[in-house]
Write a structure and sequence with these properties.
Elements (H helix, E strand, L loop, with lengths): L1 E6 L4 H14 L5 E5 L11 H17 L6 E5 L6 H7 L4 E3 H9 L6 E5 L5 H10 L6 E6 L11 H18 L4 E4 L8 H8 L3 E3 H15 L31
Parallel strand pairs: 1-2, 1-3, 3-4, 5-6, 5-7, 7-8
């Protein structure tokens, strides 16, 4: 089995961490192929960057040679999963939905701990779209930018664990979801600080993708996720030169 795990940002070190986490969760015989988009933002922390990442992820997967058996979109709360499902005949698993759905097997209510406060609405909206919001106790921000997660790992664990503990005591959450692909590898230390199950979305997505492949299941193509109709796409792809938004 061969699974593509696609980072939503262009930071290679984050792709490497996600790939390592995915490989650790994979079964023997499953090949994990980590991918970094060739264009996009160095971290994804808002709507503009999320929509840009959606296009980048789709184009990265489209350009990758087959065969592969499943695709994981490794961005928490990001757009684009639906487009991938239209394009592909193999299962597509988003880590947001993978973490939240897994959490619901483990407790009555779950909370998500993410990076910056501005990403909270994006995650809430994605959970709502996925039909997973009813049992979400809260989405809490650690206050850390994505790129800060790997600059000081202990500080990241402290900030995430603090919000996770508050989710358990104040919001009555029974399970915590790590709300960023860049948090890969931190789950065990957050468990030690909170005493509740902590779900890493990358690991959960790998397990779900493997199960779907083994069951011979993939996305329905009869309506919502039917393949895009053939038509001319004008001036695509655009220039991929580096730009900075200010």
């Amino acid at each position: 089995m061969r699974i593509l795990v696609v980072n939503v940002n262009t930071t290679q070190s984050i792709t490497d961490a996600i790939g390592k986490q995915a490989a650790g969760a994979a079964s023997p015989g499953t090949e994990i192929v980590p991918l970094t988009p060739s264009f996009g933002a160095e971290s994804v922390e808002g709507n503009y960057e999320s929509y840009l990442a959606a296009v980048a992820v789709m184009e990265t997967v489209r350009a990758h040679p087959e065969p592969f058996d499943a695709v994981i979109q490794a961005g928490y709360g990001e757009h684009g999963r639906e487009g991938l499902q239209e394009l592909l005949d193999v299962p597509v698993v988003d880590i947001t939905e993978a973490a939240a759905s897994t959490a619901q097997f483990l407790g009555r209510r779950y909370s998500v701990v993410t990076t910056l406060d501005r990403t909270v609405p994006l995650i809430e909206e994605r959970l709502e779209v996925a039909g997973l919001s009813a049992r979400c106790a809260s989405v809490r921000a650690s206050g850390l930018p994505v790129l800060a997660l790997e600059q000081d790992e202990q500080a990241a664990v402290d900030a995430i664990a603090e919000q996770a503990a508050r989710a358990v005591t104040d919001d009555r959450a029974e399970v915590i979801c790590l709300g960023c692909g860049g948090m890969a590898g931190l789950a065990e230390r957050v468990v030690a600080r909170t005493g509740v199950p902590v779900v890493d979305g990358v690991s959960a997505a790998v397990t779900i993708a493997e199960s779907l492949v083994r069951l011979g299941l993939s996305t329905s193509k009869v309506r919502t996720y039917a393949r895009p109709r053939p038509k001319q796409i004008v001036n695509w792809p655009p220039s991929t030169s580096r730009t900075r938004v200010s």
